[in-house]
Amino acid sequence: MQYTDMELPETIQQALAAMGFTTPTPIQAAAIPPVMTGRDLIGCAQTGTGKTAAFAIPMITKLLADETANGLVLVPTRELAVQVQEVINDLTKFTPTVRTVLLIGGVPLGGQVARLRQGPRIVVATPGRLCDHLRQGTIRLRGVNVLVLDEADRMLDMGFAPQLREIMQHLPEKRQTLLFSATFPKEIEALVGKLTKNAERVSIGERSAPNAKIRHRVVMVESRGKNDKLLEEVNAKEGLVLVFARTKHRTDKVANFLEDYGVKAARIHGNRSQSQRQKAIEDFRSGKARVLCATDIAARGIDIPEIELVINYDIPDCAEDYIHRIGRTARAGLSGEAMAILISEDKQQWKVISKLLRDKVEGSVDPQKVLTAAPMAADNAEDEGEEGVEGVNAPAPRRERSRPERRPPSRPQAQKFQRRFGSGGNGENRAATGNRGGRPGYGRQQGVRPNGTSQSGEGHQRWNRDRAPQKNKPREFDRPLI
To answer: What are the Cα distances from residue 342, in Å, to 54, 321, 324, 409?
Structure first.
């Protein structure tokens, strides 16, 4: 089947030709015809198989046929929203009457409001920012005829549930609903049924299965050898490498570690501003940064075919998220490689993930065997100087990193410290300042000021008012950590 066989509008045919597309992918060939008839649809296909065009092409076709129709596309991350808008803009290149607006967080509301006043017919948004506009009354959704939930499994989990409920209250009951994702866990089936009516299901390939063109590897190391193994894998590749870490803090630490060893690394996580996140992706796409360190916000929405290797520095808590992570490689028909660096604490979670990869691991290495044999194999390799089990390497030797010599404080600094806290060098000073062991700020005697004078007598009330801590106010180190 060709795009010319689908009776698409001429302007879309021209846009597809300009993009270099002539033959639809399997998910596009299966999903576009029923969507064009107006039916709800649930589409499941592996990552990198063209799901965005599978819902964008029939949605634009419907908007061209009905001048009053409008579309809404909801996505879980800003990066995916930007990617979806780019695809829709390419498809509407020769259709000036269909304009698109992007509503995402991290950017001022004013510019988005100005673009909403221009009358866009397609809105691509993240749930949080769309709710901001709904509360301010800058957008109305009663004219939406087509609703798309991209990465629907992530959209329907508990994290987005309150925002989705708020958005659904503003949508008309009569609409077409399209759900697309690479994974559909059984836990969200009930929610899927509530959102759609008599939906047609289209599934390409195995459900919740990785791309068949991805080569998988797993390596067991000790905790202290994790960074060395990461550096070894990065240096062994010449192309782009995507590294996933569990938290924002660990993402920064991994990026800093790589940069300390001369590897240009960008980073992307929730604490970065939108401009920082966009620049990191642009640097990674252009090759200025050969490595991109990211949290799971990059597991959906980064479409860079040149990614050669995906490294799971930390494995995710959800097995389906692992499929989305490694789906950043082997896109657009290319091949790729994915690996996981495991430590002993990851055994149980890897057993869950490996069920999705058991038949997908190339070679003779069984992931379950790697987990049990890796520690012993690493020890043997260390003793004998050889590789133990295929795919399992001994931890790389730790590199001694030079540390700057700590200089003693200057004389003015030392004098200032002594005037304020006392020297702490003898019992007399400790008794006067209430400071045990010479450590400033600890163990002060009640009623004794830092300079050793008593609080009783003249000026006592003024001292309490101006210098004493507020009553019932907990000290900083007494507050519970969040």
So the answer is: 36, 16, 18, 43
Cα–Cα distance list, 218 to 144, 214, 345 (Å) = 46, 13, 14
Q: What's the predicted TM-score (pTM) here?
A: 0.67
pLDDT band at 406 (very low <50, low <70, confident <90, very high): low
Contact 363, 339 (CB under 8 A): no
Residue 273 to residue 291: CA distance in whole angstroms: 19
Structure-token pair, residue 205: 């390939």
Q: Identify the three-state secondary structure at position 450.
A: coil
Q: What was the pLDDT predicted at 210?
A: 73
Which token pair is 56? 């964008």
In 333-460, DSSP assigns E strands to 336-342
**Cα 67 from chain centre:** 37
Side-chain half-sphere of 476: how many Cα atoms within 13 Å?
1
- DSSP annotation string for 197-241: SSPEEEE-SSTT---TTEEEEEEE--GGGHHHHHHHHHHT-SSEE
Please state whether beta strands 176-181 and 291-294 pair in parallel, antiparallel, or not at all (unpaired): unpaired
Q: What pLDDT does 359 receive?
A: 57
Q: Domains of the chain by range and CATH?
A: 3-203 (3.40.50.300), 214-384 (3.40.50.300)
State how far the Cα of 371 lies from the Cα of 62, in Å rounded to an integer: 52
Contact (CB, 8 A) for 395 and 224: yes
Q: What is the mean pLDDT of residues 451-458?
A: 48
